[in-house]
Amino acid sequence: MTNPLAVAVLAAGKGTRMRSRMPKVLHPLAGRTLVENVLASLDQVQPERQIAIVGYLADEVRSALAHISGLEFVEQTEQLGTGHALQQVIPALEGFEGNLLVLNGDVPLLRPETIAKLVQTHVDNNNAATILTAQFDDPTGYGRVFCDQNYIVSEIIEHRDCTPEQQGNRRINSGIYCFNWQQLMTVLPHLKSDNDQGEFYLTDVVKDLAPVMALDVDDIQEIAGINNRKQLSDAATVLQQRIKDELMLSGITMINPDSITIDATVTVEPDVIIEPETHLRGTTTIATGCHIGPGTLIENSTIGAGTTVRYSVILNSSIAGTGTIGPYTHLRGQAIIGEGCRIGNFVEIKQTTIGDNTNAAHLTYLGNATLGNRVNIGAGTITANYDGVNKHPTVIKDKTKTGSNSVLVAPVTLGENVTVGAGAVVTKDVDDGCLIVTRGERRIIKDWRPRSIDPKNTEG
Ligand code: UD1
Ligand code: CA
């Protein structure tokens, strides 16, 4: 294969300006960590190797990224600069022949198209290095890239090392590069730290390589780095806009999209309507024909086609489709709801599986339960699933109806076609077809009040 590609992600820094115990690259953005967003920009290139350079709280970064298959880690125990960071991959890439793409763990808005274009430009021009650049109105703080009219770069000088005249150059270094690895290896091991910060600057390799080319990005937002929480919030706004614009163009209606947030990890099929104040997070999938919101939070859940959900919270659960959920339903902990169910007002369902066309329309708690098809749960039915130590199961079979305010004391099984009378406390299993009533016998006691508080006898 020609031109194999390796990727190194610089992720060893603490990110002091985040004012956080957590490593900067693990801060969340649109449902992923910063560094996962960076890795997502590799979608259109096929790297043979991916190496993350970790340092500050390295174990935490490693375990947060352990799910990414093929990602390797090298440790930079002391953060002596970006050049020193990249030196740490030298042993891992011994004998590698190809190009090395260098990404910063704190530049999360890169589009896959941009990375693909950087690599393509690098390969097409046979460059020693290709640098992603942009012209900023305010380039303060960034390294400046000096190039001729053909974008051939002579050097990069850090802001603090620039003369006032050099500071006038508005072309900045994004910190994203593609290198010919063999050529980089002729200079990377020999960096010096003779600069204002006494660090080993990766940017210093540029003056000793040729040809080095600058590639201006089309959209300067893409190369914004995150150094503090204000920039994190700005990046979230940019990403939200992007995610929602893409969804709307793919056939989703959003009412007041500014009030809606959707993680980059969410899938929404065409012909879904999303109403205001709705938040879709994590691995959520919404199938076609759903009407979601207003006022709904859905996290790591699957909503089947044609479901309506209003003013509800759905976490780690799934709904087969065509039913209605809410207002004010709380599904959590693996609630699995069948087709055509009506789950209504003030109903909480936890770790419970429900068949098709079953209703629990009002004021109910179902926990650790299994319900069949066409069950009707009366208002105020509660599964008493917890004895203070353990959780116990409740089974309610097809077509059974529970009366209002019944308490099902688990473990307990109601057979098929059972009817539970209102107010029952069910402590033992009930066979198919039975009616169970546990109310005390009706008694009416006349003239029961003591004389002193009988309204007829009080004065005033
Ligand atoms: C760097 C560039 C600068 C560019 C800017 C773009 C250098 C010398 N300068 O500056 O030209 O305009 O990025 O944002 O490269 N890191 C490590 N180990 C270290 C030091 C840094 O892993 O020892 C990581 C950081 O965690 C971060 C990235 O490298 O993800 C960039 O480091 P940072 O210190 O932010 O570099 P800048 O000063 O922003
Ligand atoms: Ca930075």
Describe the structure.
- This protein is α/β, with parallel strands linked by helices and 460 residues long.
- It has 2 domains: 5-223, Spore Coat Polysaccharide Biosynthesis Protein SpsA, Chain A (Alpha-Beta Complex), CATH 3.90.550; 253-436, UDP N-Acetylglucosamine Acyltransferase, domain 1 (3 Solenoid), CATH 2.160.10.
- The protein contains 7 helices and 39 strands.
- It has a 16-stranded parallel sheet that branches.
- The structure holds uridine-diphosphate-N-acetylglucosamine and calcium ion.
- Uridine-diphosphate-N-acetylglucosamine binds at residues 10-13, 53, 55, 76, 79-82, 84-85, 104-106, 142-143, 156, 158, 172-175, 201-203, 225.
Quick structural overview:
This protein is an alpha/beta fold and 460 residues long. The chain has two domains: 5-223, Spore Coat Polysaccharide Biosynthesis Protein SpsA, Chain A (Alpha-Beta Complex), CATH 3.90.550.10; 253-436, Hexapeptide repeat proteins (UDP N-Acetylglucosamine Acyltransferase, domain 1). 14% of the residues lie in helices and 31% in strands.
